[in-house]
Design brief:
Layout (H helix, E strand, L loop, with lengths): L2 H10 L12 E2 L2 H11 L6 E5 L5 H8 L3 E6 L2 H10 L5 E5 L7 H4 L6 E6 L5 H9 L7 E7 H8 L9 H9 E9 L4 E2 L6 E8 L6 H14 L8 H8 L1 H10 L13 H23 L2
Length: about 280
């Protein structure tokens, strides 16, 4: 959707984009085409889109023959989509993408991908939600705030590396495809964006393991500039953490940003294995 087309829609609907909702609409057809070429939607495959806006990307995915399941929070945009995007392959859910039960709106037992120009305000919560689904999307491609994109693809020892980096990279091969200037959006945001690609790993963690890893990573990074064993010991117990660190030959002085994703996964499994052993020991008494 070009800027002139978008401006007409906004004028016809007397619509003012909401800053709080992070409504920055993509107005560069070349970039939209790049997203579609990169993801190459297939006929009849299921695509989940959070925050479709006025359907610029949605239409191109539908044109490729895919089934689009969209979640939109703004009731004004929902009214527009219902009246102007009438396709049997377009399925709209009005609601908060961070609260909607994804499994309930998608076809059961069918693989899906998630492609979206995510509103900045929901990006971290929405990605975290996707990472804990019982059935993970086999690919995700998101337009994110540049800082968030750097976090997703960050490596250990860098300032952008954090709990969400660990959680995402435990499940997906994450690649920052390109940075995107703010000028391709209307209204123009105050920061640049980035396109980030997530490809599901064949050895991705189970839902339970992923949730456990998330808890460990969030706890460890709650004090990222201090020794990670301290917050972990408060949460899981000093003895458990000392044994876990010893079993993995980890330095008790190590900070969370120095630990790679594979070691975080091993640490999480070690912690929850020790906790399970404790429960079994208590039950035997």
């Amino acid at each position: 959707m070009k800027k002139t087309e978008l401006m007409k829609v906004l004028e016809d609907f007397n619509f003012r984009p909401g800053k709080i909702l992070g409504q920055n609409f993509l107005i560069d057809d070349n970039l939209l085409e790049f997203i579609v070429r990169t993801t190459a939607p297939k006929p009849d495959e299921v695509i989940l889109e959070a925050g479709p806006g006025f359907g610029a990307l949605t239409r191109k995915i539908l044109d490729a023959g895919a089934e689009v399941y969209a979640i939109e929070f703004d009731h004004r945009i929902c009214d527009y989509l219902r009246n102007n995007l009438q396709s049997e392959r377009f399925h709209l859910t009005e609601g908060d993408a961070c609260r909607v039960e994804i499994a309930e709106i998608l076809p059961p037992n069918k693989d899906f991908r998630s492609i979206a120009n995510l509103p900045y305000a929901i990006s971290s919560i929405y990605i975290a939600k996707m990472l804990e689904l019982p059935r993970l999307p086999r690919q995700m491609l998101f337009m994110l705030q540049k800082e968030m994109g750097l976090r997703m693809a960050a490596q250990p020892g860098t300032k952008n590396y954090g709990a969400l980096s660990v959680r995402a990279q435990a499940m997906y091969d994450v690649k920052l495809l390109r940075t995107v200037p703010r000028q391709v959006f209307f209204p123009q945001p105050g920061v640049d964006s980035a396109l980030v690609d997530f490809h599901l790993k064949p050895d991705a963690l189970s839902q339970t393991e992923g949730i456990q890893l998330g808890r460990v990573a969030r706890c460890a990074f709650s004090q990222r500039r201090k020794k990670m064993i301290k917050p972990l010991a408060r949460n899981y117990g000093q003895e458990v953490m000392e044994i876990a660190f010893a079993n993995l030959s980890l330095d008790l002085e190590i900070r969370p940003d120095k630990l790679d994703t594979a070691t975080f996964i091993a640490l999480s499994k070690e912690i929850y294995g020790l906790l399970a052993d404790q429960i079994c020991s208590f039950s035997d008494l």
